[in-house]
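Let us practice reading a record.
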Amino acid sequence: MTEREKVIRGLEQCLERTSYCGRCPYNTTKTLECMDELKKDAMALLAETAPRVMTLEEVENIPYGHVLIETDKADSLRWVDALLFSRNTNFSFDFITLEGRARLLGSEYGREWRCWTSRPTDEQREAEAWG
């Protein structure tokens, strides 16, 4: 059982008021301890899903698919919803966007463009320094 599945199952068991705690993966003899452990794991999972800038290594290793690219660090922020379709030998990345094809250089990552795991709020984006 993955950590995510464990948390979901634990939450489901707690929400079912008629549920028997023996089915809960967090079941211990001390109710408050199992609830604290469940809350801690749930918070960790939520923190993992918060928008964050991907490392270049993550971009290099993501499966071909959807990414969110921030391409302008000036006041005129530009977001590009894109599909990564090619990693090239010259250390560039090709993306398909609604505007067409985009080729971005790996050497400019963090300075001219960056990928996010999901769309951040303006406050989150502004708090993340450019490299």
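A brief commentary: The longest strand covers residues 79-87.
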